[in-house]
Every structure is written in structure tokens, then in C-alpha cells.
Write a sequence for this structure.
């Protein structure tokens, strides 16, 4: 593996009371915003973000610079920036660290972004559970405003910028950008039909850019280094920079790590997260939040054709492919939020699958029938399989239900349920067949292996 | 008796209304202000909010029922959300839930007989690296084991929510890298001992606990 690089996004995380304005400023906060607003042109800043090749950090991986390019403000319109801090995808826990430990980086990113896209108001939509983070952000905003970095004339220039925090109230679906906009407008968080896309008609009917917390928090570094230089920190083409990786589950050191885009899952688990808990074998890893199909380390990349994007890794394990938006898509999964859930050999995959499908059943907003009914039906079938009431045909039924959910709904939630479900059956079919004939025997359920640890016996 | 916000909170409503181009957008913030004062969104609260924001009560009620954090029935003094999703489950979340059920004497979805705790199951609370964890009222309690959980619950019962949170709650903290020179291998976690949110503005972050190895590699 390569030598550790100098931290950028997390560079202020370790300083004392890093969330306070004075401390953050001593470590460089707002220097780049001041320079950007007083001496650079918005188009120039937009260009840096485009050249940075930053793929959206919220999970979909859409190039942020391209998204900004969709804006086309018409007479009488107001552009809004909406920052998505509704972090709720199971396994994902990175954005909270930015809000808790360096809120001023997020605000600085919001100021530069507002100036670049010609917005005067940014809303940070934070999930309601994070009351503590909300308090910290609000204090940071008040302090930045007091210092003259927000308000009518930020840094003395004639471009008013206000940043507001909007608290959600418990709904995973509000992380979907149009559901988020409905929630921001005081409605039920149900996704909207697209088109129109938010860049054309978003918050309050106005052109709106919705970006993830980490994406916006990366903007100051991009502007300071220049888009091209920032992009080249990555090991991959067209997927630039550094990012925050997370690891949870059965590893020795679960947590968050800043690293270049393009490290491998094996590096992430072994070098960053300290290896497997109790040195047990790695059985499966969900790479970037629960909606991303599972990886099986036993499986080899099958890309004999030279033109195949993964040909370079032909014959290697799935977990040796660099983690990038395009590489993971070629692998049949998604990079998502880059926060991995690691499972050792004690985990029964049917049980793990049931756990996740219960999440989707609970969180489906209920607008579209295939999603509302499909998520519940998947849980019913998985309950039967786990509890010894299953039939061999149930395994195909899981596939059939999933296929009927995909592409048949307003938003990507149903696809985000069906894809990991299909991935589980495809890669661990034996275990599903075994569950269909014998149920899931006590003793291999994944809570047993760590019960001793929680009870303080290990 | 009709519900009314305190004058301070009324002032906050006026302030919130300036943040949005449409009055209705203040609905979630105003519901939060009401729930903080009243403990739950009673029919009186729905009536008040509808009038204040010039909406119908059915629209307000429709929004209240969509979001899990708005309570449409009374809850206990402390609301305990135990995360049941995969990352917590992999690190013993079920044992945490079972302990809470036996300690509080009620199953998830119910309130203890003394009215001090309502126990609810939560879907992923985005603290997966610090699993298992619970949320109690406004605060997160992470890297739990049963002994720590018992102390946290006892503190809530005896001292109340704010004092217990000051002692045990966690926010994201930074664990400095070991064996490197400021490389990017530093890790963020909510490693115990937890800093208190009250002390957050006063104290610096705690050093990494002695038994944590950091992440040498």
C-alpha cells in the first residue's frame, strides 16, 4: 500500500475544540473562502469543482461539477443550495464527524459553493436524531455570521449568503433528494416524480443543487489546491480526490479513515481497520451502505476481455478491486457512501439479509405499491426462511419479488432494496437453500459471536 | 385547554419564519418547538400549529404521522431508541435490547410502569463504527456493553436526562494515529471515555483510552 497522505478533509479533527471558530481559524478556516469571494470569479470556482472530478459523496456518485452545470437560472428565479445531512443509510456514519468536529469546514464550503452557483441561501438538512450535531452547527453558523463571513456582505462583498439548519424528524427516505425537498417545504417526505430535476425545479419551485455534506466540505480544499491537483490525489481516473471511508462490524478498529479514492477493500479492512475481529475469516462485506450489493472475498473478478474495465484485476478477489464509483459499478455493486459493513464467518447471510430488509420495510414511504408491498413481502419470506417455515421455491420468490420492484417506482429506494437482495441470493445461494430446508439453526446467528463481548466476558 | 408556546418559543417561531420563502416550510421546526415544550404532539398542539402556520389540521396531522420522531401519543420522561440495524446487530445490539427490556420491564414500543422510560426500536442511527449504541432523548450513547448500559440507565432514572447525558453521552471524537507522523490513518470514533456534551464547550477532547491500540498498521 502507499504511504499515508497528509490529511485534508479531516486535518482539523484532531485539534483541541476544533469546532470553535477561533481554533478552526487558527488552523486555516475561512482563509480560502475569503480569498475565493474577494478575488475569484464564480465561473472559475465552478470550473475547479468540475476539474476535481469529485463524485457525489452521498452514495449515487454523480459528478458534482456536472450537477452544478445543470443550473440555468431564469429571470426572477432564486437558486438554492441544499446540503444533505440526512445520513441514514445503514453502515454510513461519516457526515456526523464533519458536523461534530469541523462544522466550520462545512460552512466554509457552503459559502464558496453559494458564491460559485449564485445562491444566497443554503439549507443544511440534518436528520432529527442528530440533535447534538444540529446544536453545534447552529452555534458555528452564529459565530461565522458574527465574524462577518455570512449575512448581507460576507467578507465585505456584495453577495448575501445565509446558511440555515433544517432538522428532519426521523425518516430515511428524506435522504432522497426530492423527498428531502418536500420535507424542507414542510410536507411528508415523499419523493417527487422526475423530471423536473431539482436543478430545474427544486426547493420552493426554484432551481436547487442538492449535495452531500462531505461533497460541500471538500470544496475549500478543491479551490485551494486547484481542481486538477485535488483530483490527482486519487488513484483512479475521473473519480478524484480523497474521501472519508468508514468501517463497521467485525473488525478490530471500526471507525472512519481519510484516504485517497481507489484504495481496495482489502486495504481498508486490513491496513486501516486493523484486520478482522478475533482474526476470524472475512465472509462478506457490504461496501458502501446497505443498498450496495454485497462482496464475497472468495469470488474472483471475471474479466478476460481486454476491453473490460476490470480486466486489470481479472482473476483477483472482488475485494482487491480499487474502490471507485466506476470500478464498483463494473463489479456489479455500487461504491455508495464508502462505509463498509464487515461480516465474519459466524454470520448467517439469510439472517443478515432479514435484518436489512426489515429496515427497508420500515422505511419505505409507501407511495408506490411495488416498494410498499415488495419490502413487506421480502421480510415475510425471509421470516419464513429463518424460522424453519421456508420452502425451496422461496429462494426464487425472493428473486422474483426483487425483479418486480426494480425500475417500477418513483425513486431509487425500491432498487436500493432489490439490488442488495438479489446480490445476497446470487452470492450466497447455498445458504438460502439450506435455510429453506432446515431454517437457520441457533448458534450460527450473528449476534451469538459477539454476545460475550457485550456481556463483558470477552 | 388550548396549547400555547412560551413567549421565548413564540419568538423562535417568528425567527424561523424569516428563513423560508414559504410559511409552510416552518412546519417541521415549529412541531419540534412544540414537542420540546409539550413532550408530544397532542391534538391541541396540532390545532395550535395549524392556526399559527395557516394550514389545515389534516395537513399538520399528515406530517406528524409521517415522521417517527414526532410522538402522537404521550411518552415517558426519557425516550430510549435502541438501534436494531445490521452494524449494531453485528456487535451485540440484540443483547442491548434484551437488557433494556428486562431492566425497564417493558418490551420495545412501550413505556415503563413508573413512566420514566419509553423504549423504542430505531433504524440505523448513523453511528455504525461505535456500535452497539442507543439514543436517549437528544443524545447518543455509543460503544456500549451491558455494564455501561446499566450505569447509563440508572443515571437517567436517578439524576435525570441532562445530567446523565453530561456524564455518558458521546459525539464524534478523533483518535490520533499511532506509529505515523500525522498521516491520514487517524481514525474518528466515539471511543470511551465519552466526553460530556455539557463539557464540550469547556474541555478539550479526551486522549485515546489506554486500552485502545489506535490503528497501527
Amino acid at each position: 500500500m502507499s504511504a499515508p497522505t497528509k490529511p485534508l478533509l479531516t486535518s482539523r479533527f484532531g485539534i483541541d475544540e476544533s469546532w470553535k471558530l477561533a481554533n478552526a481559524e487558527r488552523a486555516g478556516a475561512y482563509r480560502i473562502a475569503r480569498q475565493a469571494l474577494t478575488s475569484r470569479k464564480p465561473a472559475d470556482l465552478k470550473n475547479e469543482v468540475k476539474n476535481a472530478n469529485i463524485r457525489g459523496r452521498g452514495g449515487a456518485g454523480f459528478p458534482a461539477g456536472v450537477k452544478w452545470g445543470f443550473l440555468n437560472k431564469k429571470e426572477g428565479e432564486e437558486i438554492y443550495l441544499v446540503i444533505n445531512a440526512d445520513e441514514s443509510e445503514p453502515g454510513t456514519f461519516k457526515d456526523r464527524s464533519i458536523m461534530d468536529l469541523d462544522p466550520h469546514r462545512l460552512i466554509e464550503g457552503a459559502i464558496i459553493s453559494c458564491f460559485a452557483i449564485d445562491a444566497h441561501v443554503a439549507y443544511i438538512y440534518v436528520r432529527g436524531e442528530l440533535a447534538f450535531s444540529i446544536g453545534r452547527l447552529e452555534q458555528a453558523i452564529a459565530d461565522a455570521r458574527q465574524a462577518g463571513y455570512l449575512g448581507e456582505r460576507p467578507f465585505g462583498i456584495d453577495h448575501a449568503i445565509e446558511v440555515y439548519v433544517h432538522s428532519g424528524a426521523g425518516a430515511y427516505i428524506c435522504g432522497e433528494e426530492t423527498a428531502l425537498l418536500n420535507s424542507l417545504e414542510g410536507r411528508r417526505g415523499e419523493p417527487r416524480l422526475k423530471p423536473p430535476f431539482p436543478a430545474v425545479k427544486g426547493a420552493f419551485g426554484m432551481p436547487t443543487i442538492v449535495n452531500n455534506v462531505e461533497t460541500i466540505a471538500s470544496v475549500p480544499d478543491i479551490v485551494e489546491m486547484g481542481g486538477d491537483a485535488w483530483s490527482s490525489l486519487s488513484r483512479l481516473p475521473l473519480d478524484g480526490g480523497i474521501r472519508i471511508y468508514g468501517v463497521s462490524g467485525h473488525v478490530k478498529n471500526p471507525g472512519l479513515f481519510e484516504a485517497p479514492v481507489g484504495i481496495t477493500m482489502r486495504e481498508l479492512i486490513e491496513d486501516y481497520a486493523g484486520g478482522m475481529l478475533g482474526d476470524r475469516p472475512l465472509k462478506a462485506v457490504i461496501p458502501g451502505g446497505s443498498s450496495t450489493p454485497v462482496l464475497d472475498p472468495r469470488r474472483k473478478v471475471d474479466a478476460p476481455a481486454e476491453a473490460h474495465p476490470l480486466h486489470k484485476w481479472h482473476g483477483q478477489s472482488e475485494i482487491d478491486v480499487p474502490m471507485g464509483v466506476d470500478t464498483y459499478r463494473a463489479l456489479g455493486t455500487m461504491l455508495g457512501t464508502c462505509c463498509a459493513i464487515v461480516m465474519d464467518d459466524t454470520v448467517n447471510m439469510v439472517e443478515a439479509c432479514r435484518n436489512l430488509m426489515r429496515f427497508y420495510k420500515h422505511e419505505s414511504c409507501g407511495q408506490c405499491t411495488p416498494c410498499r408491498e415488495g419490502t413487506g413481502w421480502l421480510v415475510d419470506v425471509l421470516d419464513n426462511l429463518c424460522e424453519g417455515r421456508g420452502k425451496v421455491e422461496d429462494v426464487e420468490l425472493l428473486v422474483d419479488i426483487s425483479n418486480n420492484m426494480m425500475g417500477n417506482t418513483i425513486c431509487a429506494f425500491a432498487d436500493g432494496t432489490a439490488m442488495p437482495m438479489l446480490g445476497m441470493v446470487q452470492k450466497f445461494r447455498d445458504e438460502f437453500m439450506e435455510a429453506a430446508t432446515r431454517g437457520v439453526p441457533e448458534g450460527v446467528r450473528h449476534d451469538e459471536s459477539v454476545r460475550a463481548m457485550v456481556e463483558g466476558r470477552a | 385547554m388550548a396549547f400555547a408556546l412560551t413567549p421565548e418559543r413564540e419568538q423562535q417561531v417568528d425567527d424561523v419564519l424569516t428563513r423560508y420563502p414559504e410559511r409552510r416550510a416552518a412546519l417541521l421546526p415549529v412541531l419540534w418547538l412544540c414537542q420540546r415544550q409539550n413532550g408530544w404532539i397532542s391534538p391541541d398542539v396540532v390545532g395550535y400549529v395549524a392556526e399559527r402556520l395557516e394550514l389545515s389540521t389534516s395537513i399538520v396531522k399528515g406530517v406528524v404521522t409521517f415522521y417517527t420522531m414526532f410522538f402522537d401519543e404521550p411518552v415517558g420522561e426519557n425516550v430510549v431508541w435502541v438501534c436494531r440495524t445490521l452494524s449494531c446487530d453485528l456487535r451485540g445490539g440484540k443483547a442491548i435490547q434484551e437488557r433494556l427490556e428486562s431492566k425497564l420491564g417493558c418490551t420495545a414500543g412501550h413505556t415503563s410502569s413508573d413512566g420514566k422510560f419509553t423504549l423504542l426500536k430505531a433504524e440505523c442511527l448513523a453511528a455504525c463504527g461505535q456500535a452497539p449504541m442507543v439514543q436517549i432523548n437528544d443524545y447518543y450513547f455509543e460503544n456500549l456493553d451491558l455494564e455501561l448500559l446499566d450505569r447509563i440507565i440508572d443515571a437517567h432514572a436517578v439524576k435525570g436526562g441532562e445530567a446523565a447525558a453530561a456524564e455518558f453521552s458521546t459525539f464524534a471524537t478523533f483518535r490520533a494515529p499511532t506509529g505515523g507522523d500525522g498521516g491520514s490513518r487517524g481514525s474518528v470514533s466515539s471511543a470511551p471515555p465519552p466526553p460530556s456534551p455539557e463539557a464540550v464547550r469547556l474541555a478539550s477532547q479526551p486522549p485515546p483510552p489506554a486500552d485502545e491500540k489506535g490503528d497501527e498498521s
Remarks:
- The first helix of chain A runs from residue 21 to 26.
